[in-house]
Amino acid sequence: MAEARTLWTYRDKSPITAMAIGSEGEFCAVGSRQSGVTFLGPDGRQLWRQQEIPDIRDISLAGNARAVLVASGDNSIHYLDRRGREIWYRSTNHSATAVGVSNRADLIVVGTSRGNLSAYDRTGKLLWEHQPGGTNFRINDVAISANGHYVVVGTDYMHIYLYDAKGNVLWATETTGKVLEACVSNNGDYIGYMTDDNRIYFAVKNSRVIWEYHFNRQPLWIDMASTADFLVVGESPRKVSVFTKSGRRAWSFELPDGSPVGRMARSGGHVLVGSRKGGATMLGIEAFLAKLLRQSQRQVERARGEGLDTQEAEQLLYAAKRALADGSHGVSPSHRAFAGGSSAATMRCRRRRRGTGWRGSAAAKRDRRSSAKCSRRPFRRPPSRRSLCPAHPRCPGECDNRAHSLHRRHPVERA
């Protein structure tokens, strides 16, 4: 079992109860019941601490930490900027147990211990309220897509809910246990969640479950990359596993200290874990990303051998290699070659999708249309610089043949 690379470690006296990491893995925030909220920089140093907020239950960061949202057990939610200044706070009827925020902080949703769900904008204005299922069961987690279009809510009512930005319930699905944690991709196409009966689920936006995995013991946390190409699961306090989009456990690594809580940056390159002894550790999973990169390289080489056009895929692979070497890795839309064979960029040079579990999704349909176009288009070597006359390939660029002078790209003045 390979080891993840330790980037930095932050020590604190209080056990970590909540944490969040920015989309690029540069900034993060950790909270505890006694020490308040601590904001950490790229090197793990403390930038500021807000000790006036007690009983931290949940933390969420907007984008790359442009805003910090804190859910407190003293019946309140707090909006802080990157410098730690409190912009506004709102009181809740009961203990705030979960909070989520969109990438631009234009949608903030908070859940309480008595099943109340409230949404705010960045100014603190109340947008809508709802009670999932009409019950007062505890809301355990709230996840918002980066674009702010979808809200995923997990409760003790053994249901998971999907809302739109206006508070309309798109669907509600009964689960096999209490939904403890949930995560969602940037565009809301894919959803992951964890239940208290030792299971994790991977579903698409229409609530259809693609795959599920049953563990021997209860996992602790779950998170997803922005493109949903892989999920990270805290199997135990000392073991973290990475699952691919198809449900295969692709990689695992051990933790030196017991870490009951963890989060992954949306870029997919960093994992933040909190110690039960106090403090947090940032880990780099370059070994797993390099493994995916090698798989992508083999797929591109196989497609090139079949005569398909792999120019765009090769460019993405080159950018991914440079990003991995520079340490600026991430699974962004422009560098999806990191995500192995399941993202649209690397699938563009293939004839069809491999796997049948999620062929009905919109992303899969777009990839199939793109790959079908590539499979129908034969590979043609571009013409040399000397063959510039489109009327006849043997004519040089300065073509003076009157028979070819009617072509619009190379007009020749008539005498």
Quick summary of this structure?
Helix content is 13%, strand content 37%. The protein has helices spanning 286-305, 311-326, 344-347, 362-376, and strands spanning 5-10, 18-21, 28-32, 36-40, 46-50, 56-62, 67-72, 76-81, 86-91, 96-101, 108-112, 117-120, 126-130, 139-144, 150-155, 159-164, 169-174, 179-184, 190-195, 199-204, 209-214, 221-224, 230-236, 239-244, 249-254, 261-264, 270-274, 280-284.
Structure characterization notes:
The chain is mainly beta. 13% of the residues lie in helices and 37% in strands. It has helices spanning 286-305, 311-326, 344-347, 362-376; strands at residues 5-10, 18-21, 28-32, 36-40, 46-50, 56-62, 67-72, 76-81, 86-91, 96-101, 108-112, 117-120, 126-130, 139-144, 150-155, 159-164, 169-174, 179-184, 190-195, 199-204, 209-214, 221-224, 230-236, 239-244, 249-254, 261-264, 270-274, 280-284. Strands 1-28-27-26 form a four-stranded antiparallel β-sheet, with no helix packed on it. A hairpin with a 5-residue loop joins strand 4 and strand 5 (46-50). The protein is globular. The model is unreliable at 330-360, 381-388 and 405-415 (pLDDT under 50).
